[in-house]
Write a structure and sequence with these properties.
The complex is a heterodimer of chains A (393) and B (309).
Chain A lengths: L9 H25 L1 E7 L6 H20 L8 E7 L4 H11 L5 E5 L2 H14 L2 E4 L5 H6 L4 E3 L4 H16 L3 E7 L3 H15 L4 E8 L7 H9 L4 E5 L2 H13 L5 E4 L21 E5 L9 H14 L5 H18 L10 H12 L2 E4 L2 E5 L5 E2 L2 E8 L2 E8 L2
Parallel strand pairs in A: 1-2, 1-3, 3-4, 4-5, 6-7, 6-8, 8-9, 9-10
Antiparallel strand pairs in A: 10-14, 11-12, 12-13, 14-15
Helix pairs in contact in A: 2-11, 3-4, 6-7
Chain B lengths: L3 H25 L7 H17 L4 H22 L5 H22 L17 H20 L1 H11 L1 H6 L4 H27 L9 H14 L6 H15 L7 H15 L3 H17 L8 H8 L5 H6 L4
Helix pairs in contact in B: 1-5, 1-8, 1-9, 1-10, 2-3, 2-4, 2-8, 3-8, 6-8, 9-10
Chain lengths: 393, 309
C-alpha cells in the first residue's frame, strides 16, 4: 500500500497566497463600504494641542457611543482626525482635501485656524461645524455653510460676573488678560461692561502676551491695587501659570477663570487643593452633581477612558457625533450623497436645530451660532466642581 | 483641472518657496537678515488694504511688493552697522514689532485680523510667479554680482580687497529678499482671504528656516527642494498619527546627518556621479588620450588640448 503523502507544490502556495490576498482585499473593501468615515480637522500638536486633543478625545468617545448604538444609518463610524499643527495653512489644505470627499467636516481646532478654513468650507459647499468656535464673527462672516455649537461667550459673562461678585462680596477687581488673543480680548470687553453695571471698582487691566512665560511682573502689577477679586482671561496653559503665580504671591483674592481659561487637564498640575479656595469659572458645560443622567455618564466614560475630567470643548465634540446620528435618522445626513442638494439638507437641518442634547437645550441661531445655558461653577478641585448658578442662554 | 487639495498644496508651497528663497539670498552673503516675515506682513496687509478700499489686484499687488522692497531696504541699512548674531536678533525684533503694532493698535483689523479679502490667486498663478522667480534666481546665480555676494559671505575683508562694495551688495541682497517676500505676501493675501497677524510671527520664521536648512542654504534650488519635501511630506505621514512629527523630525535629522549642505547638496553630488558615469567621449577626450592613460602615461596637458575625434 502506498502511503499517501500530502505535498504542497510551489504553485499551490502561490495560488493560495493570491486567493488570500484577493479575499482579504475584497473583505477589506466590503468593510470599508460598510463603515462611515467622519473627517475632523484637529490641532493635535503645537500650542493648540490642549484644546484640540480634548476635542478629539470627545469625538472619539462620541464615535464609541454611536457605534455601540448601531452606528449611523446602520454603518460603523470611523473617525479620521487630521492634525493641522495649529497652523492655518495646514488647516486650509486639510479642508481642501476633505471638502470634496464628504459633506461635513468637524472643526476640532483653534479659532485662528478656522478663520482661514471657514471661507474654504463655504467655497466647497461643505458643512463645517466647530464645537468650540468662540469667535462668532468667523461663523457669521462665513454663512451659510459654517456653524458652531459653542455659544457666544460674551453673552453669559455679565450674569456670571454678577453672581461671582455677589457670592464673594467683592469691591475691587483686577483683570489679567491676553490681549493678543481675539477671543480673550472680546471676553475682557464683556467683563468691563459687566463690571460697570455693578458697584465694584475695576482696579486694573493687566495685559499679557500669548507667548509670555514669566507671569510674576503681571501678577505683581495686578496685586498692587489690592484687589479682592481677579479675573484671569487667557488660554489654559497660561491661565495655570497665572493662577499659580497669584497663589504663590500669597494672594487669597477670589479668582475667576472664564470658559477658555479653565481646562481641567491643564490644571492637574495644581497639586495643592487649597489653592482653589474662592476660585470660580463660568462654563458652557457642567457635568457634576445635578447634571442629567446622560451627561454624567459621558463624564464618567470620559474620565475612565482619558483619566481626566472633560471640558465644554470635549463635550461638544462628543455631542457633534450624536448630532450627526440624529440628523441621519431624520434623513438629513446622507454621507454618500455629495451633491449640493444632499449637502444642503444637512445645512438646513442644522439651521433649524432645536435639540435636547445630553448637555442641555441647544438651539441654533439664524447666524449659525448656538444658544445654550451658562453655568457658574465653584472650583473646589480639578475634579470637584460645584454648580452655583445657571444662566439661560 | 486641479483638485482643491492640490491647488492649496501648490499655492502654499509656492508661498513658502518664495519665503525660503528670500532667506536664502542674504545667507549667500552670510548676512543674517531675518525680517522676511515682517516684509511679507507689509506686502500682505498693504495689498489687502488697497483691495478692500476698492483697488483692483492688478494695481494693489505691485504696491504691496514695492512696500516690502522699501521696508527691506530700510532694514538693510541696519545691517551696515550691525552684523552676525546681533543683526539676526535685531531683524527678528523689527519683524515682531511690526506684527505687534498691528495687534496692539487695532489697525487693519488688529488682533481680529483682516477678513473679506477677495480671492485672486490659485495654483496656476502661483506656479507662473514661481517660474519667473526661479528663472530670475537662475540668472542671478550666473552673474558676477552673485559671485561677489558669495565672496562677501566667505570673507568680507578679502572681498573688499578685491574691490567689492559690501554696502552696495548688502543693500542689494536686502532688496532682492524684499522683492521675494513681497511676491509671497501678496500671493498669500490673495489666496487665503483672511490675514491673521499671529501668522507673521517667530514660529513661521522657524518653519521657513527649516525648509532653507534642509533644502540647502547655499544652493539655488535648496529652498524649492526643502519645501517640496517638508511641505508635501506631512500630508503623506498622516497614517502615522501621533508619531507623525517623530517621523518628520527623523527625516530632517537624517538628511542633515548625511549632508549638512542639505537636499540640494545631495542632489548635486548624485547628479555629478550620474553624469560622470554617463559622459560619452567628447570634447577634450580622444582615443589617443585614453590610450595614453591606459598605458599608464598620463599627459594631462596633451589630453586637455586634444581635438574631438
Amino acid at each position: 500500500m502506498t502511503k499517501r503523502v500530502l505535498t504542497t507544490s510551489r504553485r499551490d502556495v502561490i495560488v493560495s497566497a493570491a486567493a488570500t490576498g484577493v479575499f482579504g482585499a475584497l473583505g477589506g473593501r466590503a468593510q470599508a463600504q460598510q463603515s462611515l468615515t467622519i473627517n475632523a480637522i484637529s490641532s493635535r500638536t503645537n500650542f493648540g494641542a490642549p484644546f484640540g486633543n480634548m476635542m478629539t478625545r470627545g469625538s472619539e468617545l462620541g464615535t464609541k457611543w454611536v457605534n455601540a448604538a448601531g452606528g449611523i444609518a446602520g454603518r460603523n463610524v470611523m473617525l479620521n482626525t487630521s492634525d493641522d499643527g495649529s497652523d492655518a495653512s495646514q488647516g486650509v489644505t486639510r479642508m481642501q482635501k476633505f471638502g470634496p470627499e464628504c459633506n461635513v467636516v468637524l472643526l476640532n481646532t483653534l479659532s485662528s485656524v478656522i478663520q482661514q478654513v471657514a471661507p474654504v468650507a463655504n467655497e466647497l459647499k461643505t458643512v463645517a461645524i466647530g464645537p468650540a468656535i468662540s469667535l462668532a464673527k468667523i461663523v457669521v462672516d462665513n454663512r451659510p455653510w459654517v456653524f458652531t455649537t459653542f455659544p457666544r461667550p460674551e453673552l453669559g459673562v455679565p450674569s456670571a460676573v454678577a453672581t461671582w461678585i455677589k457670592r464673594e462680596n467683592l469691591s475691587r477687581v483686577a483683570i489679567i488678560a491676553d490681549v493678543q488673543n481675539a477671543a480673550t480680548k472680546i471676553q475682557v470687553a464683556a467683563f468691563e461692561v459687566a463690571l460697570k453695571k455693578t458697584t465694584v471698582k475695576l482696579a486694573d487691566i493687566v495685559p499679557i502676551a500669548t507667548q509670555d512665560v514669566n507671569f510674576e511682573p503681571s501678577v505683581q502689577r495686578a496685586l498692587k491695587g489690592d484687589p479682592d477679586g481677579i479675573v484671569v482671561s487667557s488660554l489654559p496653559n497660561q491661565a495655570v501659570g497665572l493662577f499659580q503665580s497669584i497663589r504663590n504671591a500669597g494672594s487669597k483674592a477670589s479668582v475667576f477663570l472664564p470658559t477658555a481659561a479653565f481646562v481641567p487637564a491643564a490644571f492637574k498640575t495644581v497639586s495643592d487643593k487649597s489653592a482653589f479656595d474662592r476660585t470660580y469659572t463660568v462654563q458652557v458645560f457642567y457635568g457634576g452633581e445635578g447634571a442629567s443622567e446622560s451627561c454624567r455618564k459621558f463624564v464618567q466614560d470620559f474620565q475612565k477612558q482619558e483619566g481626566i475630567t472633560p471640558d465644554g470643548s470635549a463635550a461638544f465634540a462628543f455631542e457633534l457625533i450624536l448630532l450627526l446620528q440624529k440628523a441621519a435618522k431624520a434623513g438629513a445626513y446622507l454621507p454618500d450623497d455629495l451633491s449640493e442638494t444632499g449637502r444642503a439638507k444637512l445645512r438646513a437641518y442644522l439651521e433649524a436645530l432645536d435639540w435636547a442634547s445630553p448637555f442641555g437645550h441647544v438651539k441654533m441661531g439664524s447666524d449659525g451660532v448656538a444658544r445654550r445655558d451658562y453655568f457658574v461653577v465653584k472650583i473646589n478641585g480639578v475634579d470637584d466642581l460645584r454648580l452655583v448658578d445657571t444662566i439661560a442662554g | 483641472m486641479l483638485s482643491p487639495y492640490a491647488d492649496g498644496l501648490i499655492t502654499f508651497g509656492v508661498v513658502y518657496t518664495l519665503m525660503a528663497a528670500a532667506i536664502h539670498i542674504p545667507l549667500l552673503a552670510n548676512y543674517l537678515l531675518l525680517s522676511q516675515v515682517g516684509f511679507m506682513l507689509i506686502a500682505s496687509y498693504s495689498s489687502a488694504a488697497l483691495v478692500l478700499a476698492g483697488w483692483p489686484w492688478i494695481l494693489a499687488a505691485p504696491v504691496g511688493v514695492l512696500a516690502s522692497i522699501v521696508a527691506a531696504a530700510l532694514v538693510g541699512l541696519l545691517g551696515l552697522r550691525v552684523k552676525d548674531f546681533p543683526l539676526a536678533i535685531a531683524s527678528i525684533a523689527i519683524s515682531e514689532a511690526l506684527r505687534l503694532t498691528i495687534m496692539s493698535t487695532g489697525i487693519l483689523g488688529g488682533i481680529s485680523g483682516l477678513s473679506g479679502i477677495p480671492k485672486a490667486a490659485n495654483a496656476q498663478v502661483s506656479v507662473l510667479i514661481l517660474a519667473a522667480v526661479m528663472l530670475g534666481l537662475a540668472w542671478f546665480h550666473q552673474t558676477r554680482t552673485c559671485r561677489a555676494v558669495i565672496a562677501l559671505g566667505d570673507d568680507e575683508i578679502s572681498a573688499r580687497a578685491f574691490g567689492h562694495n559690501p554696502v552696495r551688495l548688502k543693500l542689494l541682497v536686502g532688496v532682492l529678499s524684499g522683492l521675494l517676500c513681497g511676491c509671497a505676501g501678496v500671493l498669500y493675501a490673495a489666496y487665503v482671504r483672511f490675514l491673521d497677524p499671529n501668522f507673521f510671527g517667530f514660529s513661521t520664521l522657524i518653519f521657513i528656516l527649516v525648509f532653507v536648512v534642509v533644502g540647502g542654504a547655499r544652493r539655488m534650488f535648496g529652498p524649492l527642494l526643502g519645501v517640496a519635501l517638508l511641505w508635501v511630506l506631512p500630508g503623506y505621514l498622516s497614517f502615522l498619527a501621533d508619531y507623525r512629527l517623530v517621523a518628520y523630525s527623523a527625516v530632517v535629522l537624517l538628511i542633515l546627518m548625511i549632508d549638512p549642505g542639505g537636499l540640494s547638496a545631495l542632489a548635486e553630488k548624485a547628479a555629478r556621479k550620474i553624469f560622470a558615469a554617463a559622459r560619452p567621449l567628447g570634447r577634450g577626450t580622444t582615443n589617443r588620450s585614453i590610450q595614453i592613460r591606459s598605458q599608464g602615461g598620463v599627459n594631462d596637458k596633451a589630453s586637455a588640448h586634444d581635438q574631438p575625434a
